[in-house]
Design brief:
- Helix 2 packs antiparallel against helix 9, helix 3 runs parallel beside helix 9 and helix 10 packs parallel to helix 13.
- It contains 13 helices and 14 strands.
- The strands form 4 sheets. The chain has a 7-stranded mixed beta sheet, sandwiched between helices. A 3-stranded antiparallel beta sheet has the order 12-13-14.
- It has about 375 residues and is an alpha/beta fold.
- It comes from Flavobacterium aquicola.
- This is dTDP-4-amino-4,6-dideoxygalactose transaminase.
């Protein structure tokens, strides 16, 4: 059996090596390492794929989220509601901009931000909601957009883990995750469903004026060289990374389908086990692209299971072991433990198994057999 990887980028690269290499060589031949034609081509192709008016590439996913907020002219002290159960980058940029993060609990079934918790957290100071499409599954955008409209709030989608996922609205129509709110950010970190070979990110919006402002912000506030019209940052996707993304974007749907198929095989193997809660999804649907495959372990020692898997050479991880409201950097007297029952439960139960485009049946069987062996 081939060695099991948490993310097998080498095998993925081997299948498209000639295309990736040619794309990188084009950058080397043209010597246009910043804002070269590869960046502009990727921007156009991703706009078509997402069916969004504006894609603004930038240096990484954290920058993308920060720049999206900068573009909205949020002021110090403005409150921004986001999920407690996610990676720190989401709350980090809120704090960096001297906005007030308001962390709320998540839903126990889909692990995305709780609609009821959002409603309870809104105050006269609330200006924005940041739903995180966690682990590759879309948050409840019908409800979130309705709340935002009612209270005149911005919606900034954190789409770092769900590029390519479709959200199906209550009326049956679909849109890609990341193009529903007022603005969105994503990451092209190598392990993402669409990843480059370094850092990279992008901002999406259908708002022409906002897109124009953001294009200046990512480039030192310049629209014309040495004319600084807005306060900006230096955050540009380099041409080599754009070349890699150009090579991989045509395969994104195929990659996401492979992830859903692997998830379905995991789910089938675990079906009926009283100690395991598997992620619910429709194999024929497309709302979940499984950036991570995350189980909940009930009435069993999750940490001992993790060690059992590691001892067998099976990589695994806990996303996320400490709630954001308990992190030293984000402690706040406003937060009460009773406000986060689901998050506090999930951090004790979740475990992520290997998930990538190259998982084969032999590997999946060895992984699932090893989990079940521990839980028997």
């Amino acid at each position: 059996m081939k060695k099991i990887q948490m993310v097998d980028l080498k095998s993925q690269y081997d299948k498209i090596a000639s295309t990736v290499n040619a794309s990188i060589q084009e950058v080397l031949d043209t010597n246009t390492y910043i804002n070269g034609p590869q960046v502009h081509q990727f921007q156009k192709d991703l706009e078509i794929y997402l069916d969004v008016k504006h894609v603004i590439p930038c240096a990484n996913g954290t920058d993308a989220l920060q720049i999206a907020m900068m573009g909205l002219d949020l002021k110090p002290g403005d409150e921004v509601i986001t999920a407690d159960f996610t990676f720190a980058a989401t709350v980090e940029v809120i704090a960096l901009l001297q906005l007030t993060p308001v962390l709320v609990d998540v839903d126990v079934v889909n692990m995305n931000i709780s609609i009821e918790a959002i409603k309870k957290a809104i105050t006269p100071k609330t200006k924005a909601i940041v739903p995180v499409h966690l682990f590759g599954r879309s948050a409840n955008m019908d409800e979130i957009m309705a709340i935002a409209k009612e209270h005149n709030l911005y919606v900034i989608e954190d789409n770092a883990q769900a590029i390519g996922a479709n959200y199906t609205f209550a009326d049956g129509t679909k849109k890609k995750a990341g193009v529903i709110g007022h603005v969105s950010s994503t990451s092209f970190f190598p392990s993402k469903n669409l990843g480059c070979y370094g850092d990279g990110g992008a901002i999406f919006t259908n708002d022409d004026a906002l897109a124009h402002k953001i294009r200046g912000i990512v480039n030192h506030g310049m629209y014309e060289r040495y004319h600084h019209d807005v306060v900006g940052v230096n955050s540009r996707l380099d041409s080599i990374q754009a070349g890699v993304l150009n090579a991989k974007l045509p395969f994104l749907n195929e990659y996401n389908t492979a992830r859903r198929l692997a998830a379905s095989k995991y789910n089938a193997a675990f079906e009926g086990n009283k100690n395991i809660v598997t992620p619910a999804f429709d194999l024929n649907g497309d709302d979940h692209v499984f950036h991570q495959y995350v189980l909940r372990i009930l009435d069993a020692d999750r940490d001992a299971l993790m060690q059992h898997l590691l001892d067998k050479g099976i990589p695994c991880a806990i996303y996320y072991p400490i709630p954001l409201h308990s992190q030293k950097a984000y402690l706040d007297v406003r937060y009460k433990e009773e406000d986060f029952p689901v998050t506090n439960q999930l951090v004790k139960e979740v475990i992520a198994l290997p998930m990538h485009t190259e998982l084969d049946d032999e590997q999946i069987k060895f992984i699932t057999d090893s989990v079940l062996e521990f839980l028997k």
